[in-house]
Every structure is written in C-alpha cells, then in structure tokens.
Design brief:
The chain is mainly alpha-helical. The chain is about 65% helix and about 0% strand.
C-alpha cells in the first residue's frame, strides 16, 4: 500500500470526503448527484431506480420461479444486513432454508453490484 504524506488539515478533509463517499455507496450516478446538490435525500430516487433495475434483471439469472422469489428477497433485505454476520436459514426474517438463501446470495453476489 502506498502512503503519501498529507498535512493534518488535508487528512481530516479527505477522511470526511471518504466517509461521505462510503455512505452514499460510490456509484457514479449517485456520487455525481451528491456532488452537485449535497443532499442525501435527493439520492433516494436514484437508489429506487437501481433496486427496480435489479428486480427486473433477476429473471435472467433465476433458473425457476422459486429461485426468482429467493433472489428478489435477497435484493430486498440484504441492505439491512450489510456488515453483519448472517445466517442463511431464515435470512431477512424469511422462512427460506439455508440452501435456498445461500444459492440466492451467491447469484446476487455474482451478477449484481450493490456498491
């Protein structure tokens, strides 16, 4: 890892910018919108459109209707589990089994970028 010397005032500013970047998710359209308006609430429509496009794309990757439901559940609930230790069985307060959720999570990880 490369370490560049940075003055304290610049370090604090860069760290705050990085925290904002991490908070808003780092997606180009979201970053651009935030850079222009500096309003977190204005980002909701962009995130909603991204989630909608994920739901629309699921059909390409699901092998059957049950798997389609599992992957959609993963997309809908995974954000609240980010950074937490999870259990596959009952993921997102569901009645789904471990095998169903592990497969759906693998598919989502492979085909969808949530960051």
């Amino acid at each position: 890892m490369l370490h560049l010397p940075v003055n304290d005032f610049a370090h604090d500013k860069l760290l705050k910018l990085f925290h904002t970047y991490a908070l808003i998710g780092g997606m180009p359209e979201v970053v651009e919108q935030y850079a222009v308006h500096r309003d977190l609430t204005a980002l909701a429509p962009i995130f909603d459109a991204l989630i909608t496009s994920y739901f629309d794309d699921v059909e390409k990757y699901a092998s059957n209707d049950s798997q389609l439901l599992h992957i959609r559940h993963v997309i809908r609930t995974s954000f609240t589990s980010a950074g937490k230790r999870i259990q596959f069985a009952g993921f997102g307060n569901s009645a789904y089994r471990s095998r169903e959720m592990s497969e759906a999570l693998r598919i989502a990880e492979k085909h969808f970028s949530f960051t």
